[in-house]
Amino acid sequence: MNKQLFKYYLNIFLLLAFIFSPIFAFSWGTTGHRVIGEIAQRHLTKKAQKELRDLIGMESLSLWANWADFIKSDTTHTWDHASKWHYVNIPGDLTREDFMKSLQNLNAENLYSQIKDLTAQLKDKSLPIEKRQIALRFLIHFVGDLHQPLHVGREADQGGNKIAVSWFDKSTNLHSVWDNSLVEFQQFSYTEYASNLDIASNNDIKKWQESTLEDWFYDSYTLANKVYASIPEDGKLGYKYNYIFKADLDQQLLKGGIRLAQLLNEALK
Ligand SMILES: [Zn+2]
To answer: Across the chain, where does the E strand assignment appear?
Structure first.
């Protein structure tokens, strides 16, 4: 291969490596959000299915599951104000009572205030359809975000974004491990993952669906406290970390799907 051709291929390689490297911490990578959308889709009531057809036709929930992250790259900056809607920051290790107080007293727009707002918009049939479609797209994503424990994390480290760790010797941060690495490590497509998880008993489903939005946040917060307490001193995460958290990860994805269905069934009845 001559030198110029080599350089050409090298540039292509570097470009691809750049595109596919997880530089930006989003939220559950595309797979995690789609798993939640897919599970929710399977638990919609007939009525909600019909209402959704009127809103988005035959498009699936998982199709829209990552839209709220994609718009962060919109060059018109239309949605810049929405970037703080993806998380809440709460101090660590609070009692349930203090947690609830903190959640209610958060100022500025945040994941909790927006889920409530957007749910009201989705319900409100007097609003233009475009507005309700946007509310729906955000909700599909945000119910997912709220089940990623580090979206209910601590302000000082920006929900783990500032906690440097390695994942199988590759440098990254704790937030990104939870968004992407752990989910991708399972090596399922989103539909395979959804099918494997979607075997909860009716009892469990009923229990999860009786819980409130505030309970969902507290669930994630409790897990976040465990995540913060389980960072090894050398920051090296790999097989052992997966072993410790695999069941929690699966539960969060499953609960996220079941609860998203609950929220939509309720809003579109
Ligand atoms: Zn997000």
So the answer is: 88-89, 152-153, 164-167, 170-173, 236-237
